[in-house]
Recover the amino acids of this structure.
């Protein structure tokens, strides 16, 4: 069977991980990545021996790459001509511009959460609306928080039916290594409702959602508390039962040492996961509490890597590699190794 | 009219503020404060010229105070003998032991949130159950988060009726200057439900409450998001209307520059408030969102000072200085200067 | 005797403290302060009842102030016409522009560290080169770190002679309440040598200095380690002897509870200092170590307030209120209350 | 040739990395690791499929491991009986107790920096005093800061001669994932001189050293500023020349994007290094400044991994696998892959 050819635009925090994720798929071929400048990420690629071919976007200074002896395989346009689909993780707004090229070359594309919804035909989530993406040309992924949040809400919704959701997002303000943004000894509040609640309603229009987001000065993982109102009474046991069956949800316990977002980062490093990344969201068993018909729980969102699986799901849907959410997500999970370890208790 | 004589046990973060607050009450007399060692707080008292008399608790090394030329006015027992009521802000557990002395000497006492509920006859909140404290001998204050939370919930409840509450507490992990505890680049989650939700139900038994608490590495103010389910539909305008009338709730706007807990701390410093403290909780106008019959909002809890007014209310109740919540809290507010500035917009 | 009339341009972190400091001087009159927008600082001024008159700089939207019922006393130009000297704590670069107005109106001015040295005739430090400022029209203050650093180096230099200095600046990255800058879980290094070392050589040209600056994610006080090479052997006792006599240096001990910059901030709050500010630098006794002819020590720089006394010294020098460093700094210290408390041990 | 058999006691932050490092050595065999409880590290080992055999130390509850289906290969004593040398990274103080067993069984051991110097015959550093360790039975490694510091000082000393050193250690206060220690919005100072300066003099007695240590609330890498006084004038170019030849020193530039300790952590993650670790210290080119005969520079110490190479050097010395520092460190570097990538610019 012919492999689907994939390119990645923007080799930053997300782009690097998309490239690594695609490279693991047995039925896909990573043709190359494109970027603008010899950033630390590109220098690391060079030091690793250029496992991926590098293409330069418009405006790049080829001389700087040559001076550093970083091999260049061609231009962004040349990359686009070689692929079936582009994963666009360019800085916000650039993806919309790139789309003109994709359209000209007849290439499909998946955009990341930083772009406006209008860039795409489908606002996509691998578990919640896979079928909407089947055969689509332009898809936009939900953002990291929304991706993880929807995994958990969709899980309960399919099992028991959910009517209403209220969330509090305790957001990490920067990624490890970020120097262009930060917060020092301060919490910061955003105008409500948070876009994640609004986005959830776009993907799952039968649910009413609202929420408040607070920024905190940490780098390892957002935490979201979710209050979900069921169509029926959902007990703690029922919630655990559903969550435990989900491949991209890892049930953890405070009592075992998973005290917060930093424990999960350390655990992923100790697992030997590349970059200390984790594809699964974690859900704390001791956080689950019932209140009348409502159930409340807390999840951890590994912001750098959580959208990778759903983005790869999007390739599968767009290119009609698998036609259903069950088969599409299962193939992604198989190649990424998701759903094995997190079932070990 | 004879002034009520008050003593303070434990001159730490809370004790210093209790002493300052009592000293401002025109109908109370601060007899003295008691502590164990020449801490920085005691050294600051000395440098300020000993505005309050110092008594030493059992186990204190008098020689250390003499060597530092810190005047000592007597023993803890001698202090207790001189007062009508003690405010006990000793470290957790010590208050229960001190109670034996209070009982022996026939002195009333108000304990802080660190003690067990069983230390007191009444678990007290100035606005929610003032009348229960009237004439009581031993009262325990709600903790800082619970005190501020109940202010807002009681406010809505009296105006419109509240049935259910779900909270997320984004807790500051240390006070400015704390070196005995801290958290670095990590969020930490507690077993749910949080004690604040449970305590709210103890004070307001007609409301069902649950919640999750997450610790964050900051020092200026907890933030709590509250989802309150009304007996009737509560609109944003109705909520603003009620909150704006409450003397101990300060409505603020992100648009005005109140971006988070640190803005409020800076504002209190710029106001010239001693220590940069604020007695009011702040409530962000832009955080208020409706969702069906529910209303959601976020409040800021200035953890070092928020319980001071309610503790002084407790003196008024216990000593029957005022017999109703309206009159008791009004006197406290008058002497503390609460409810003037925060109505300036 | 006629009081010197002073205006303050820019009512931010520094400007507020300059205004408060001038207001305390018995031989000066604070005519007013000028700013552009109804910031939180201006709102706090309003809530306090407008203790200082407010003038608006060019570009200010008078309507916004009127809408908030904030009284306005006139324009920036009108303020300048009423004063003998302006303290300019405008954002960096604006001071240079304001200078044109000062020159036109024949008004002296003192600029803060953010302006270029060329804005002024004299780069000034109250203790190190007071006499250079006597009668000068335009002075620029050293920055906060340099001001505190020079206090300590000048102190040793006058007592024993210093030839060389090497510093490491452990810089707080934001002030409490800052949301426009920050750093999260990261140290950041600047190109060496740090400007503070270069500035020290400008003020004290007989000393050779170098240094490295590292930014840290905290808000309460920079810490500087200083390695000073004496013309003669300087023992720890000799250093303590000299430092203890300096009014703007507060000797502190780790053993007493002064564990770091946050302890000092808490102590200043507990002292009842407005905003929890401290004018003195702190110097840890246990940090002083000898190494051959060199002596090494660590100081704490309260970045928000440390330059206030030296700025007021600059008024005294520029306006020839006192002609010598001894008399000029002594008057400033007297009115600010410096040098009393910090001698209490 | 027979492989040297190695065991690791204590499978925490350091122990895990020692095990991984030994497993990479072609001339060593990792027999197993020993620990007390099913920590997150042990759970990660289980989830990875038990690449290393686990032995239980005295006091371990075997039932807990069985319940979690974690295979156990035997007791600590059984592990010790199977090896030639133990790497002891037990909690501080436990190593000294373990030594009794090592002596009884005639097994050599290398202790980590947390133990007292008296536990060992030789206080060891691979580059500075390798020959002292040759054939020794009990060695103690320098701590992480001292190990990295000595690399740089020894490098300059061998090239040009160093007489004196003054250091400022800007210490990260916790590792990623630590919840048992932390610091929030505070710098903390230690009594001077820092132990690292004292330890440097123990290892390199011909150098006079002093220093001050300040704790900062970050988790990724200590930064040390070093002022080194040469026997001769050392220029910036001379320093770069020497540092660039050292396999375990990575020269980096701020201009390339290495803005601080967090950039280096991110870079190591992007390199694909397990856990995002780096064995080399980094030295910023732009930090190097001359001052008379002195040279000043700043280095980054990756605290979790920096001692691994020198610990493996210690095995080589103790077991007489190589008899000189050049050959011993070269073998370690070869197997760990050190000295290739960091020469790529």
């Amino acid at each position: 069977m012919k492999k689907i050819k994939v390119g990645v635009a923007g080799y930053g925090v997300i782009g690097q991980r998309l490239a690594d994720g695609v490279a693991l798929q047995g039925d896909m071929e990573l043709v190359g990545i494109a970027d603008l400048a010899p950033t630390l990420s590109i220098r690391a690629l060079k030091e690793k021996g250029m496992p991926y071919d590098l293409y330069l976007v418009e405006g790049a200074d080829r001389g700087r790459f040559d001076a550093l002896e970083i091999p260049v395989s061609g231009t962004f346009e040349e990359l686009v001509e070689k692929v079936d689909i582009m994963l666009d993780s360019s800085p916000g707004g650039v993806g919309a511009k790139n789309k003109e090229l994709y359209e000209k070359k007849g290439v499909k594309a998946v955009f990341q959460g930083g772009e406006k919804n209008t860039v795409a035909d489908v606002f996509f989530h691998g578990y919640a609306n896979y079928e909407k993406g089947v055969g689509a040309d332009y898809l936009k992924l939900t953002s990291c928080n929304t991706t993880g949040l929807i995994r958990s809400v969709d899980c309960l919704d399919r099992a028991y039916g959910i009517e209403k959701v209220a969330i509090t997002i305790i957001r990490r303000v920067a990624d490890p290594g970020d120097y262009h943004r930060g917060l020092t000894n301060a919490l910061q509040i955003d105008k409500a409702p948070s876009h994640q609640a609004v986005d959830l309603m776009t993907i799952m229009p039968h649910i009413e959602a609202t929420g408040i987001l607070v920024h905190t000065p940490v780098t390892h993982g957002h935490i979201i508390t979710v209050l979900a109102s069921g169509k029926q009474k959902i007990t703690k046991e029922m919630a655990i039962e559903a969550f435990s069956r989900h491949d991209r949800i890892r049930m953890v316990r405070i009592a075992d040492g998973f005290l917060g977002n930093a424990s999960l980062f350390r655990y992923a490093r100790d697992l030997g996961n590349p970059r200390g990344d984790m594809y699964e969201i974690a859900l704390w068993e001791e956080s689950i509490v019932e209140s009348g018909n409502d159930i409340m729980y807390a999840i951890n969102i590994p912001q750098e890597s959580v959208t990778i699986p759903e983005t790869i799901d999007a390739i599968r849907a767009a290119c009609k590699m698998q036609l259903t959410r069950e088969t599409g997500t299962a193939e992604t999970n198989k190649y990424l190794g998701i759903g094995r370890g997190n079932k070990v208790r």
DSSP finds twelve helices and 16 strands in chain C. Chain C has a mean pLDDT of 96. The first strand of chain C starts at residue 4 and ends at 9. The domain at 144-305 of chain C is CATH 3.30.360.10 (Dihydrodipicolinate Reductase; domain 2).
